C-alpha cells in the first residue's frame, strides 16, 4: 500500500504542477494570457497523461485493498514489493502512452481565427473548437479513449469493492468489520472525488467546453489538495490535532 501511496503522492505533485503555476501566473498578470503553441500541447499531453495514470493507480490501489482483505494470508505473496513496483510502473507507462496518438493528431490540425481558448488550460474541447478543419474521427477517438480510461478502472474498482464487501460481511466480529472498512474509506473518498468530476467533463464531447471550467478546476486543483488530508485523517494523532484545532481545546 505504501509503495502505491508514494507513487500516488508523487503523481499528484506533478499533476498539479502542470496547471496551477501557469494558472496563478495568468491570474496575477496584468497582460492578456498568452501561451505558445508548443507550450499548450505540452501542457495538454502531461495533464492528460498524469490524469490517466491517476485513474490506473486508483484501480491498482483497489486491487491492493481487495487482496489485503479477501486473501490476507496470501497477501504478502500476491502483492509482493516487486509485483507492486511493476504494477505502479505499468500504470505510469500506460498513462503516458494512452493519449499520445490523439494528441499528436490534434496538434497537426489547422488553427486559425482568433486562437482564443475559453478555458484556463489547454483542454480538448476548446482546442477542437478553435480548429479550422473539422476532425470528427479524431474527436471520436479521443473521447472513446477517455471513456475507456475512466470507466475501465472505475468498473474494476466497483467490482473489487463488491468482493471486499462480501468478504467483510462474512467476518463474525463487528470490530474486525469496522477495521476492514476503515482501511478502504480513504481510497473510496479519493475515487468518488476524482471519478465523479472527470465523468462530468470527458465522457461526452459536448461536456468539455468552457461551461465546465469549474468542474475542471475541481478535479485539477481541489481534489489533489484534499487527497493528502483524506489519507492523513487515518492517522490517530492527525485526527486528535484536527479535533483540538476545531474545538479549540488543548
Quick overview of this protein structure:
With 250 residues, this protein is an all-alpha fold. The chain contains 11 helices and no strands.
Write out key terms for the chains shown.
single chain, 250 residues, mainly alpha, Rhopdopsin 7-helix transmembrane proteins, 11 helices, 0% strand, globular
| Separate helix tally | 11
Share of residues in strands: under 5%
User: CATH superfamily, please?
Assistant: Rhodopsin 7-helix transmembrane proteins
Helix content: over 70%
The backbone outline, from C-alpha atoms, is globular
Low-confidence stretches: none
β-strand number: 0
Total discrete domains: 1
What is the alpha-carbon Rg in Å? 21 Å
Q: SS-based structural class? A: mainly alpha
Gross CATH architecture: Up-down Bundle
| N- and C-termini, Cα separation | 33 Å
CATH class term = Mainly Alpha
How would you characterize the largest beta sheet? none
Overall pLDDT metric: 82
Order of helices and strands: HHHHHHHHHHH
CATH topology: Rhopdopsin 7-helix transmembrane proteins
Break the fold down into its secondary structure elements and pairings:
Elements: H1 2-17, H2 20-28, H3 37-70, H4 75-78, H5 81-98, H6 100-107, H7 124-130, H8 136-169, H9 174-202, H10 213-232, H11 236-247
Helix pairs in contact: 1-3, 1-10, 3-5, 3-8, 3-9, 6-8, 8-9, 9-10
How does this model look, in words?
Helix 9 runs antiparallel to helix 10. The chain contains 11 helices and no strands. It has 250 residues and is mainly alpha-helical. 76% of the residues lie in helices and 0% in strands.
